[in-house]
Amino acid sequence: MMKKNILVTGCGSDIGQSIGHILKKWEHTGKLIGTDINGENASKFIYDHFILVPRCHDTNYNSALKKIIDEFAIDLIIVGTEYELRMITEMNIEGNYFGLPLVAVDLETRKISFDKFKTGTFLKEHRLPHPFIFPITDHKKIEKFPVILKSRYGASGKLVELIETEEQLLTNPHLNDPEYFLQEYLPGEKNEYTCCVYRDSSGNMLDIIFRRKLLEGFSFYGEVEHNNIISEFIKKIASEMNVTGSINLQLRLVNDTPMLFEINPRFSSTVEFRHDFGFKDLIWSLEDKLGIKGEERNIDSKWKYSKFYKAYTVFYE
């Protein structure tokens, strides 16, 4: 198969840089082009060509991207930012973007997962364990504090607030904002997990589970855990959603019951760690999209490593 020229948007983020590291080593990668709104990041040292573009909602964004696609004869696109992925989800874009193959999870999964209240409702309707959720208008029904105040559409852990008392809730500026809702607080920070399920277009599934620790909202340490209860739970979610692609799930174990509090319908910040472990969901997604038969997949979950530690690399010019 001829090598593919790949465009990754939002390549300056930690996710975009991780995607770049993986694709640089992929045998089918031709030219690797990255775009971002900010030039003060290390992606220029990772991608073959790094190009500044306007924000995705800017009126000049489409023409800027189209020019890059034509100039570098791009073959496929990976969207690296959640903001742009949300935008194209609102536009009902699924298999193709700018007339080219789009490597992303299916549209319906994105629609459910990008609305955090809709995610909770989905879990409830399918009788899957979940924290209780309340529309903000039902705040008088809250009997126990603390609770979590969340935006339905917040990204990357933003617009999330711990509400510890009724007084704090009643004086909150978002109390009457329909874009916010209340969610049961889940105890057990030491039992927090970040998980990934990859499900291909034929319905075959693989998963990997990390017990993790966070620093400023990012996973800086994780340890693989083989947990059948969690594995069955997250695969059940992927099956009920009819996922095609890769999803990241955040949950806590509460009294040995997995309680999901967020689904990210995109490649997550642990994508490079997973790849190095042998869980190559980015490559599998590319192979599935392009109809490539790749290497045999590790269905026995015997991963190469057991732990990851996130470090920092400095580049100079």
Please, could you describe this protein's structure?
This protein has 317 residues and is an alpha+beta fold. The chain folds into three domains: 101 residues, 3-Layer(aba) Sandwich (Rossmann fold); 53 residues, ATP-grasp fold, A domain (Dna Ligase, domain 1); 122 residues, D-amino Acid Aminotransferase, Chain A, domain 1 (2-Layer Sandwich). The model has no long low-confidence stretch (mean pLDDT 91). The chain is globular. The strands form four sheets. The chain has a six-stranded antiparallel sheet with strand order 15-14-11-12-13-16. It has a four-stranded parallel sheet with strand order 3-2-1-4.
Question: How do the strands and helices of this protein lay out in sequence?
Answer:
Elements: E1 4-9, H1 14-24, E2 29-36, E3 49-52, H2 61-71, E4 76-79, H3 82-90, E5 96-97, E6 100-101, H4 107-113, H5 116-125, E7 133-135, E8 147-151, E9 160-163, H6 166-170, E10 180-184, E11 192-199, E12 205-215, E13 218-224, H7 228-241, E14 245-254, E15 257-264, H8 271-277, H9 281-290, E16 307-309
Parallel strand pairs: 1-2, 1-4, 2-3
Antiparallel strand pairs: 5-6, 7-10, 8-9, 8-10, 11-12, 11-14, 12-13, 13-16, 14-15
Short descriptors:
317 residues, Dna Ligase, domain 1, D-amino Acid Aminotransferase, Chain A, domain 1, 3 domains, 9 helices
Give the structure's gist in a few sentences.
The chain is an alpha+beta fold. The protein is built from nine helices and 16 strands.
CATH superfamily of the largest domain: ATP-grasp fold, B domain
From the N-terminal CA to the C-terminal CA, the straight-line distance is 36 Å
CATH topology name of the largest domain, in short, is D-amino Acid Aminotransferase, Chain A, domain 1
Summed up, the domain count is: 3
Please outline the major beta sheet: 6 strands, antiparallel
Give unreliable regions as ranges.
none
Q: Tell me, briefly, the overall form.
A: globular
- The helix/strand class is alpha+beta
Mean of all residue-level pLDDT scores: 91
